[in-house]
Design a protein that fits this description.
- The protein has no helices and eight strands.
- The strands form two sheets. The chain has a five-stranded mixed beta sheet with strand order 2-8-7-4-5, with no helix packed on it. It has a three-stranded antiparallel beta sheet with strand order 1-3-6, with no helix packed on it.
- It is mainly beta.
- The protein has a domain of 92 residues: Immunoglobulin-like (Sandwich), CATH 2.60.40.10.
- About 13% of the residues have low confidence.
């Protein structure tokens, strides 16, 4: 009986960094900021929600926005837009304002809605201190 000795060579293929993420689109980040963040009552606050970075995804095209002001008030904003086409630029900045009549710490939240579901949520905190005529004093 004859015995055969040989060498077994094994090649290991390493996947490049980020492999498997090809074809997976990068979502934009959703942030919310307020101006002013601290004020005396009564105060009018401007909030700006912004999509930054990411790709132009249909999921973020022509959204409805739902604002929760944390003082019992809510508001919404929707738009009528033409159908999404590849290459269409997203609207990336949304603003709203709200009047706070009473002192307090308020957690403002905005939801970016598409097709009846939230695709992004952002929040920020606003501090309103007692001012002249504040009914909470």
């Amino acid at each position: 009986m004859r015995r055969v000795l040989g060498t077994l060579i094994v090649f290991v293929l390493a996947a490049p960094a980020g492999a498997g993420s090809e074809g997976k689109a990068r979502k934009p980040r959703f942030d919310l900021r307020a101006s002013p963040r601290v004020a005396f009552s009564p105060a009018y606050v401007l909030v700006t929600a912004e999509l930054t970075g990411g790709e132009e995804l249909e999921e973020f095209y022509c959204p409805e926005l739902m604002w929760e002001w944390d003082d019992g008030a809510k508001s919404g904003h929707g738009q009528d837009c033409p159908p999404f086409q590849p290459g269409t630029e997203l609207e990336r900045r949304f603003t709203a304002d709200h009047a706070y009549r009473r002192a307090g710490v308020y957690n403002v939240r905005v939801r970016l809605m598409r097709g009846g579901r939230a695709v992004a949520v952002a929040s920020t905190t606003i501090t309103i201190r007692p001012g002249l005529g504040d009914p909470s004093q």
